[in-house]
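3.2 Worked example (two chains)
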Amino acid sequence: MKDDRRIHGMLTLAVMIALLITTTTLYVGVAEAQEETLSNGDLTVPEGENPFGGDTIGTYSIGTDREGLRVQVDMNISPTGDNAYQAWLVGNATENDLAVGQLVDNALGVTLPSTNTSQYGLIEVTEEPVNDPDPARNSSAVVAGAELES
């Protein structure tokens, strides 16, 4: 009788462990499936009339997850003086620029509310004065950029 209880208890424990492993695996799989990279690559210095195309001075990654639009920017150089880097999604036809955020220690990682990225053709990094009272993108202050993948 004791052996039957012990075997029953061990079988119950084995089933519970198997269910826990299966549930954890499914949860992690769902979370991973909800993350999608939309565009990533190098940020380059402006060249000619384009805000990109020169030497590489950073990287970016844009993707979606269940929280919204995930944007990461890393720069290899620092802003001058009392300036700060600001990342932007730039609308190529719509002239609708979206301030993504200010880089801290040459890096930015932020999740924005869900955003329709199809209206943006570029990512740019500008060098702006710290505490800049003008919230608009300064197109003459672009230090790096990249064309987003369609």
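3.2.1 Second chain
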Amino acid sequence: MPCWVCTNLARRFAIQDPVDPPADGGACSTSARSEVAASRAGTWRAPAASVMLSSQIDVPAASDRDASSGPLHAGHLISSYRIEKLVGMGGMGWVYHARHEITARSVALKILREDQLACDRSVDRMMREATILASVCHPGLPRFYECGLLDDGRPWIAMELVSGVPLAQRMHRCALDADVVIDIVVSVAEVLAAAHARGVTHRDLKPDNIILAAGDPRFPIRVIDWGIAHALAGARFTNMNEAIGTPTYMAPEQARGGPTGPHCDVYGLGIVAYQALTGRPPFVAASSVEILVQHLNRPAPALAPRCPDAPYGLVELVERMLAKSFAERPSAAEIRSSLGKLRAARQAPYLRLAVENSDAVPLPVYETITTPAMPLARADSDE
């Protein structure tokens, strides 16, 4: 690839730093400057903490008259929400565990960081996230409750607080079983299909943004962080030649800074599925630009040799999701349908003969793929 193409890729990716410096060139916080430098060096990574994490950080108690700079303290009142604990921080804002003063409902309260107030794009993106959460009706998105503005103009969003762990944390230990991957991909595809039907593309699908909410009665996962999502009916907050997203999970057309759509989310989900099955993403390199170049020019390494126990239907579908041409990728609805059928087939009972007692009398046993193995009866003529 010509050197100038790599240079353009680097310039485009640097545009979408997780933290933008103030537009007037004034000083921003030390943490913001360090994040900008890390982003330009290709080493920045979003914190693992999110609105869905049950692990929390205690914040010293303080009165309602706390200074507005920095993280707010326990006891601070935002509208009708009393802050209890700091959950974490993302690229643009602080996330708190708060409780409604009247209903006592616990919420995740997301507030734009003060150093981001000078960045119109950050404010717009946070308000867009509130709009998307309110408009896309699916239990796989955090439930939207309320939003507003602080006295200094910073937006805040009150949303569902769900206990769970990021998929990234689950995948960090080892590759996942194929049936677990099928369950996760089916659930994420269902959420994406609902968003795509409303003209919304996530654009930054990755393991950190998929929360596993085991045992949740509403839905087993949540797809979070819709701040850079693109709505077809809304205003565009990125330039046509601006690459936005996380390099490891970016579709080729996204890496070029071209138009994005549902096909980008499908590619990102394919990367997530590949990584979940094998323990590593298909493209790794020392820098973000090198990863983007591989997305553009190299086919993903064959999946079957890296997870030989995975069913062919799953392997074939993931490889289609990673097609360089977005026209060859399946839709999120097709992914959900195909894997739903595959999951049903793998869980369907089948008949076999099994030994139940010492007399070795073969009896019919209905079994599924997850049933513990039993010794098969053998008809030996000499017994």
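3.3 Remarks
The mean pLDDT is 78.
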